[in-house]
Structure formats: C-alpha cells, structure tokens
What we know:
The structure is a single chain. The protein has eleven helices and 14 strands. The protein is α/β, with parallel strands linked by helices and about 400 residues long. The strands form three sheets. A six-stranded mixed beta sheet has the order 9-8-10-11-12-14, with helices on both faces. α2 (about 80-95) links the parallel β2 (about 70-75) and β3. α2 packs parallel to α10, α7 packs across α8 and α8 packs parallel to α9 (about 300-305).
Amino acid sequence: MTSTRARFRARGSAAVLALALGVTACAGGPGASNNATEGGVEAVYDNAAKIGDVSQLRPMSEFCGTKPVKVALADGTGDNAFRKTARAEFEDEAAKCPNITVLPYADGQNNPQKAISDIKALVAQGVEALVVFPDAGEALLPTLREAYKAGVQVVPWTANPGGKPGADYTAFVGHNTVNDGVTWTRWMCEALGDKGGNVVFLGGTPGNTQSLTEMVGIEKELKENAACAKVKLLNEPGKPIDTNWNPAQMQKVVAGLLTKYPTIDGVITDSGDASLGGIRAFLQAGRPLPKWTANDNNGFACAWKENADKNPTFQTVTVSARTWIIRLALRKAVAAHQGIKNDEPEIINIPIFENTLDENKLPKCDTDLPASAVLSSELTPEQLKQAYS
C-alpha cells in the first residue's frame, strides 16, 4: 500500500497558508492551551520557520541512530478511533528502528491526575523519548517540564500544553489550524460559485484554540478572496458555533440553526464524526444537504455516498485527520535523544484528502471499518482493522 505521505507528495500540497478530545478526536479540547497573540492566533502558528508541508517530511530511518532508546506514548485518553489509529501509527513508526524499545502504552482515561501519574511512571521506567497527547493542557506542563529536565526528550503533539520548547519540552508538533480554515473556505467559495450563499462555521468546545484559529483562517479567506464576495458567514465575528465535537450536540445545534435561518448553503466544520449529527438534522428537517467541509472520517464518507444522489447540493471536502503526525513527533523525540539534527517542520499544513468536485479524490466508504475510522492514516487496511479490534 502506498503511504499517505507518498500519496500526498504525488498530489502536491493543497494547503494555501504557511489542536481531539472525546469521541470525535478533534484537537484542543477543554484542557487545551489558549495562549493567543494579539491577533488571536497562537504564536506557534505565526512562526513561519516552524511551518511546512508533507513534502518536507523525512523517513524514520534517518533518525534511528545507533544507541538503544526506550520510547513511549502517553495519551490523555485512548478510547476513540482517532487515538487508536494514532497509537498504531506510533508503534508502526517505532518498529522501523531495530534499536527502539517501546514501553507500555499509557492511557490517561481523560483523568489529568492519571495522565500525570502515567508520565511519572514512564520516567521511572527509563523512558528516553516520550510522545504525549496533553489533553489536560497547561495542567500537565509542570510534569512535562520535570521529565524534560530529567533528560527525557518530550514531544507533545496536536494539543498545545503551553510553555516553551527547549525549556519545558523538546518540541511541540501539530497541524496548522489557521491553514485548515483557509483551505475549507477557499473550497466553499468555489463550490458555491457566483451566487454565493449563507455559511455557518461549527466548532468544538467553548473557547478551544483549534476552532478559534480555524476561524481566523476562515475570516481571512472570506475577506481576501474575490470568489467569496457573495458568501455570508452567519456566525458572530470571531465566534465559532460550539458543538463540543459531539454528534448529538451538533444535531441539536444545527436543528436550531435551521429554525433560525431559512437558507443555509454551506457548513464548515472541523469534525467529520460530529458532522453526522448535523447531517441528521438537515434530513429530519427535510432540508437539502448543503456544501460541507470536515476532516476525514469513514462515517462522513459513507454519509456522502448514501445521500449524494438525492441531494445534488451535498458536495464535500475533507482535510486529512492527521493521525500520521504522531510519527513526526516520534521522529523529533528519537532524533533529539540520538543527537541527530531534525529539520522537519513542527507545524504541518494539512492537505486535502477528499473532494467530491475532483473525480480523483472522491470519498471512499469502507464498510469493513468503524464509522469513526481514519482512512487518511499511513496504516494498511489490515493494520487499521487490528487497531480497532
């Protein structure tokens, strides 16, 4: 099977600019850091030197080194398909180096105190390169700093715990959420065409950094792209409409929006999983399904396949759900332990994965996998099945 990275390189980056908690695996949950600059964008997304695309990613073999190294993954929670996929990707990447020993996986079970205890336990076991999904946000920072100062190469990924790389941990690895907002909006404006239309942006938990920074990208593109001249964003300025990244909550929210607005021509979201609830709301209201954006999700792809024929206005685009970024986090941690320079970007512009307006990128529904499966992973179908078993 051709790797996701290779497929993306072949297609070229669809990104246009140089964090998941709970059942939907969207980043930046309630514990996420909200350290914003005056412009409303996390400083990490303002640092062009740290931002790049998938064409700049390198193979694990370049960073294995020769010294034996103990690695581990400390997850804030591991009870959803996104986390299971990411864990499998982590272990698959580690298996590429014969000198790597993987310590037992740590599942914080959405309990900050357990997550802290897990990291301390891994340090006591001698972990040398530690990848962390810091769902507890800044509450986890003192523990990350303690491990780092004890000599462990610590790389938090996707959810920013605050603090400073080089002082509190080795590096932070994630995806460019501002860029996601731009990508979705550019597609939406082109899909709506000259007539334009009414669009809503549905975010996640209240005040989360991911949705706020996506909103920055959305508003930027609406302002600067002439193709967006007749597209009206129904949100209050700078404010995502909260759905908690939960399908049931999104269904309620969208039902309310449908009552309030006679016409909604486009929905921009950052969760394919939660989108299933929004789609149900449209169908139950007897309203035609609109243009829709998300990150990739098997259930979302299946929903398009099931409803597209009866809803010709139901066009969709997704960006990769980026579980493969955990591989980059591992490479950064191992390289630092081995003393090998790693020039890969720390923040990745995520490419488009599916696009119903492009015959080469039509969504593919895999009925052999759970609805929440992440098909843009770098795992084979066999590895995905094993990850969810």
